[in-house]
Amino acid sequence: MLTNWINTHLLTFLTFAPILWGALLLCLPERQAYLAKLLGLLGTLGLAVVGFSLMLRLAPDPSGALFLEHQPWFTVVGLPVDYHLRLDGLNFWLILLTLFLVPLTLLGTWNSLKQRSGAATALFVMLEGTVLGALFAQDLLLFYLFWEAMLPPMFFLIGIWGGQDRKYAANKFMLYTLAGSLLWLVALLYVASHAGGFTPELMGQAVTAMPFGTQCLLFVAFAVAFAIKVPLFPLHTWLPDAHTEAPTAGSVILAGVLLKLGGYGLLRFAVPIFPQAALHYAQPLALLSVIAIIYGALVAMMQLDIKKLVAYSSVSHMGFVVLGIASFTVIGVQGAVFQMLNHGISTGALFLLVGMLYDRAHTRQIADFGGVAKRMPIFTFFFLVVTLSSIGLPLTNGFVGEFLILNGTYVSGFAWGRPMAVVASLGILFGAVYLLWMVKRVFWGPENAAEDSGTAHLHDDLNAREIAVMVPLVVLIFWMGLHHRTFTAHSEATVTKLLADIKAPSPRAVQVIPADAHPALHSDHGSSEEAH
Amino acid sequence: MPFAQSLLESLGRDLPYLYGPLFLVFAATLMIWPGDLLVGRTNKRAWSYVAFLVLAAGGAMALYAPLGQGFSGMFRVDGLTKGFQFLSVLAGLITIVLSQPQLNALREQTVEYYALILFSTAGMMLLVGATDLVSMYFSLELMALCIYVLVAYLRHQERSVEAGMKYFMLGAFSSGILLYGISLLFAATGGLTTNLAELNEKLALATPNHTLLVFAGVLMVLVGFAFKVAAVPFHMWSPDAYEGAPTPITAFMSMAPKAAALGAFVRVFGTGFHGVSGEWMLPISFLAGASMVLGNVAALRQQSLKRLLAYSSIAHVGYMLLGVMSADAQAGGQAIWLYMLTYLLMQSGAFAILIHLQGKGEGERIDDFRGLARRRPVLAFAMLVCLLSLAGIPPLVGFFSKFYLFKLAIEQGHITLTVLALLTSAVAAFYYLNVVATMYFKEAPEGELKPMGSGLALILTVTCALILVGTLFGPKLLDWTAKITLG
């Protein structure tokens, strides 16, 4: 009976099972923290198994959806709201990433939290459910509900289990995101009242009838909400605080999963609903993301705290995602989708590793370390691999994503495409500088001789549990680097259709792409060979 | 005796519309005399039960009253009347329960306290059904006079008396303005009518010579109402009155009179002044915008939770004024009703916790909530639910009603104000979250907390449960809302 229900309501199950499970775990008394952690881990693991086993068997239906749940929900002020969950090429891997990353994070930070770790686990499990709900939701009001529901769990994770300035960081995170999404809500209501519903299709139709200026204003309201989540320069200032103060697991989920919603929202909603405005704003978007790439990298270079460094590298890497979207080429957008996965794996793994180091040394200052490689060879190996993937070394995932995006930007046909691609590629160079410089100072050189330095506290290398967490991540890093078609094949059809829809009926498109500059498909092929 | 006969006849016809409020008035009178003579000094607590039952019975009578219009068009029972009467009665019932801990602790149980609540609730019930400016004024005064006294109820406490005095002085002043406005409008119609429906027709036909008269009259009535609902800049009394009043009365004031006054606001401006909406739309939009901004910004700096809730209620009124501005009075009334219903749930939940922590009336500082999550996880969670809902965070029910209201405002073309409303909600989220952060992120002080009384616990459980699952019953809520019809 239950399996039958799950088979027909897979998406509902994946969304609400963790939410309910987390709520249940939250009720466990504090002294049962171990049980809560165990149940949380098993629950998310079970969910991942169910999700993987079912989702990998699905075949797309003619409309491109792999799985669909759609029924009318209720009508508010004459506007029908649909309960519309959908799995397709665009969210497929992001969902698998979420399913995969949450149990790994729970396992990886098993002993990190000393107090009330049961409640933290429960919040993580609930957070997973809301994120999955937001990724599945196709109705904008439903999406908005899940989008906002993601905030409170993260707010508490940062605020209760965070570091010194946790209250400030938690408030900043919450208010920044909330302010953006409230403005977005106005735009959403405005479009919905013109469209007579919250489905992207209806909204898209209604938008074409609006004056261009209104379209642009509405697009900006949508884009700002998503850009805050990404986060795009200059709306990124909440991220370093949130990342630095959050507990390890919070940082991993924030980087690995929550930030993705920003890029995903842009691609799924903002761009298809406002195609003309999106094309109109392609240049400012690209400019901001190039600034984010360079600025994030430069600021990361100057950081004294490893975690803060990784946080700023997040800004830089997520800048690539928006750059790829702004190129409006199949290859660039594919790269953006791929880069979201990359960033989830690599930065997530980096945060996990930094957390493991912090658990032992109780400090994250680069200056407190030195010569760690001698004391922790296994740890150093994993750290190095992940760092190199984050830099974008060929053979690793980072290379494929950044290459596709830069390629897409270069061939986008926009006048600014080539210069921006050139400038953005400097970001990769800077990435190598700040990451390798940090690695050098932390892992090599003479051992830090000071008595209470970080290195002095490092007595044991990674244990079996921690290795078990890192191995799948490293495998994925190489798999994504060596055979990216496993991942890009799913989104190709969706992305191609999306871009075709955007560009086809654009009487007002500001910059029409010349017919001969359509090398997207060829170079996609080319790049895959390059990546091999 | 044809006169007496016709009087009896019309009374027999019209009285059923008023059974609810009349029952309250009679019962309250009987409670004071001779009822109070029959119970001893120690048994005063029993009056709370009596008052609760009387109020519930009065509410039920009002809810089952026949629909129609009576007393020469002075009073009307329609969906709007019943909906807002329901809210006032509900607020009154909640207030009676919330009053118990503090009145018992201070040994201040008297029959007059409950009688005043009943009288003012009767006034509210009349107010929302009033379809004539004069009957509206009378009921408003009945409601307000009782509340002046209730604010100053703790006569041994200086701040309570001071608050009552302030409220009374300013309230009397604003009543004067309101009455003057009514008389100007009466003059503008040529001294013919104060009935809302007729007024609407007459005002639209006013000659150019009279437009200034109409404008001044409408504006003065607006000022009177703005004072009653505490909209900026006529809110000056409210933080002091809220802070000084006994906390249960603060809860009462932030719920019941506001609901009733907003119901009457919609009726008067939506039906009576509908034809001249050009005259008052701009002033109301300024009131609304100023209330949102000032209410929320001033709440940011408050150290006392009571004052914080007072200022935030100013902001919530600002949001609800968006509903009054709706060109479609019925849709506006529905949106306000829904908002008020959910606001009532959240506010009474928050006040239940405040009253519990306050004990005899001291600990109301936000700082007193430090580490509540460690000491009382359930209580802190309940407070969290209420506060997040007040902040309008989905999927709690507070979001749902805000959504409904803002959706209406956007449809009516008030886009700038809606943007302002949402921006200020972000400000509101800041101070609500600040309380949450104090509860969850700070260390608890030493000392034990006493367990919660069953009355408060019941209210808290019910309101929190409704806030949590309310959105799931959105369709049901909307069905009820659809019953708030005018005429």
Please specify the SSE layout and strand pairing.
The complex is a heterodimer of chains A (about 525) and B (about 475).
Chain A (H helix, E strand, L loop, with lengths): L1 H7 L1 H17 L6 H23 L9 E12 L2 E10 H20 L8 H20 L3 H10 L1 H11 L4 H30 L4 H9 L3 H18 L8 H8 L2 H26 L1 H6 L1 H20 L4 H22 L2 H32 L10 H4 L1 H15 L5 H14 L6 H27 L20 H19 L2 H19 L16 H12 L1
Antiparallel strand pairs in A: 1-2
Helix pairs in contact in A: 1-2, 2-3, 2-5, 3-4, 3-5, 4-5, 4-12, 4-16, 4-21, 4-22, 5-6, 5-7, 5-12, 6-8, 7-8, 8-9, 8-10, 8-11, 10-12, 11-15, 12-15, 12-16, 14-15, 14-20, 15-16, 15-19, 15-20, 16-18, 16-19, 16-21, 16-22, 18-20, 18-21, 19-20, 19-21, 19-23
Chain B lengths: L1 H13 L4 H20 L7 H18 L4 E3 L4 E3 L1 H28 L4 H19 L3 H19 L6 H31 L7 H9 L6 H19 L7 H8 L2 H26 L4 H24 L4 H20 L4 H30 L13 H4 L1 H15 L5 H15 L3 H27 L12 H16 L4 H9 L5
Antiparallel strand pairs in B: 1-2
